[in-house]
């Protein structure tokens, strides 16, 4: 997504293509993560349920889907922000998204673990 040169600010320049490609690879990694979470949600609700979806499966599936949407939207915002900072020659912005993603996945994992241990007959 390249902006036309005439619309750019005088303080902006094209960054080294290697940095642009690295930024795109990072963006694609975030998108793969979102797709993985979405695939997990589909598998949990439609494949693992064997025709009977429990409330727990549906709830975890919805949480995984919402997390996938959030990650996909955050990936676009982060990609654009890094690209703009590189064009301006500025320091890259701080990023706490990996911390939040790790906490969210850990929370989901703990929830699933609890459900599997204490409610194994109902799931």
Keywords:
single chain, 123 residues, mainly alpha, 3 helices, elongated
Look at the structure and give the mean pLDDT: 86
Can you give the helix content as a percent range?
over 70%
What value does the Rg take, in angstroms?
Answer: 20 Å
Whole-number count of domains:
1
Give the overall shape.
elongated
Number of helices: 3
Class from secondary-structure proportions: mainly alpha
Tell me the total number of β-strands.
0
CA distance, first residue to last residue: 45 Å
Q: Which consecutive residue ranges, at least 5 long each, have pLDDT under 50?
A: none
Strand-residue proportion: under 5%
What summary fits the major beta sheet? none
Please write the string of helix (H) and strand (E) elements.
HHH
């Amino acid at each position: 997504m390249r902006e036309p040169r005439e619309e750019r600010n005088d303080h902006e320049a094209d960054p080294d293509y290697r940095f642009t490609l690295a930024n795109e690879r990072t963006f694609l990694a975030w998108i793969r993560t979102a797709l993985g979470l979405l695939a997990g949600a589909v598998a949990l609700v439609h494949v693992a349920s064997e025709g009977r979806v429990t409330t727990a499966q549906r709830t975890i599936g919805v949480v995984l889907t919402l997390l996938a949407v959030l990650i996909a939207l955050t990936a676009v915002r982060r990609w654009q922000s890094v690209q703009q900072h590189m064009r301006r020659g500025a320091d890259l912005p701080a990023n706490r998204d990996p911390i939040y993603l790790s906490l969210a996945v850990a929370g989901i994992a703990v929830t699933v673990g609890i459900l599997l241990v204490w409610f194994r007959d109902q799931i």
